[in-house]
UniProtKB/TrEMBL annotation:
<dbReference type="GO" id="GO:0016620">
    <property type="term" value="F:oxidoreductase activity, acting on the aldehyde or oxo group of donors, NAD or NADP as acceptor"/>
</dbReference>
<protein>
    <submittedName>
        <fullName>Aldehyde dehydrogenase family protein</fullName>
    </submittedName>
</protein>
<dbReference type="InterPro" id="IPR016163">
    <property type="entry name" value="Ald_DH_C"/>
</dbReference>
<feature type="domain" description="Aldehyde dehydrogenase">
    <location>
        <begin position="1"/>
        <end position="86"/>
    </location>
</feature>
<dbReference type="InterPro" id="IPR016161">
    <property type="entry name" value="Ald_DH/histidinol_DH"/>
</dbReference>
<dbReference type="InterPro" id="IPR015590">
    <property type="entry name" value="Aldehyde_DH_dom"/>
</dbReference>
<dbReference type="Pfam" id="PF00171">
    <property type="entry name" value="Aldedh"/>
</dbReference>
Amino acid sequence: MRVASLSEALQVANDSQYGLSASLYTTNIHHALAFAREMDAGLLRVNAETAGVELQAPFGGMKQSSSHSREQGSAAIEFYTSIKTVFISPS
């Protein structure tokens, strides 16, 4: 979808109830960084399609596109791991 400005792109994209992935095509690094900062999606790509994520990259959405966890990569280990802290006194 073509838009006239970065603010319009963010408004259109963030107006969705879903937030799995989003992409922005631009030659302006300031727009790319603002997009990354302000876009409500779990996966953001600049100058690339939204499909085909690297397997080691944590993947998951925001809003109605997510269980609020991440799959793949080190995030998957955290999701499936329970941390238990044990203290044993030497006395």
